[in-house]
Amino acid sequence: MAQHRPTPRLPQHRGELSAALATLAGTPDDHSGVDDQLIAIGRLCAQRIAAVRYASVTVRHDGAYTTVAASNDIAVAVDEAQYAERAGPCLEAIDSATPLGVPDIAATMRWPGFRETAYRLGLHTSLSVPLFAGRGEPIAALNLYGHDSAMMSALTAAVWAAYDPAVPAGPDLPRLDAGGAELATGLTEAFAVRAVIQRALGVIARREGLPDRAYATLRLRAADAGTSLFDAATTVIRESDPDPRR
């Protein structure tokens, strides 16, 4: 996955959704509260983003996919059509670790099961966004379904800019509403959390000579201290380089 950094081209909007995304990025993947965090993220997207009519969250466990949160039965039906065919934007977003937008569902030829179900239920456009927890690898896909392709296009551009600042945000960015800006802000903050954790894992791997155990070591350190992975990672980095000017 490419290096990520905050981008000033995106409208900055902090709130409960952005905080939830940053918190998830600093939570161990096996933490008992991860599913609750994913449910909250899906709910907030459905409530706050103007382009989104329905939202759901797909998780993958042992090669199987399931919907852990959905704002409506329509979102569940579209998700399950993808699971049945084992193909679709939400599965591909998790597998590829990149966002996947479908600007015109009726015109897509890649996933017939997804296309037929979504179009029959009145959906015109979608965006699937991979989400990650403390290990830094995708654990879920946030699926956003809507009716307005122009509004979803603006949201897709903002999400892509959060994932890779080298990608132009596009001319539709002024259409982005406050909820969409909050999603983009949260993703940018999540990548900043991820960068700190990955840096700390590198410190641990170099110090102990056991790269495969670095995450487990950081996970244990966070548990012993009763802190998040991000806080534990910050401490590891500070201990390795106590000069605050560097």
UniProtKB/TrEMBL annotation:
Keyword NADP: no
Keyword annotations: Transcription, Transcription regulation
Any GO MF annotation of the entry: RNA binding
InterPro entries: ANTAR, GAF, GAF-like_dom_sf, WH-like_DNA-bd_sf
Leader peptide range in chain numbering: none
Domain annotation ANTAR: ranges: 183-237
Protein name: GAF domain-containing protein
Species of origin: Actinoplanes teichomyceticus
Organism lineage: Bacteria, Bacillati, Actinomycetota, Actinomycetes, Micromonosporales
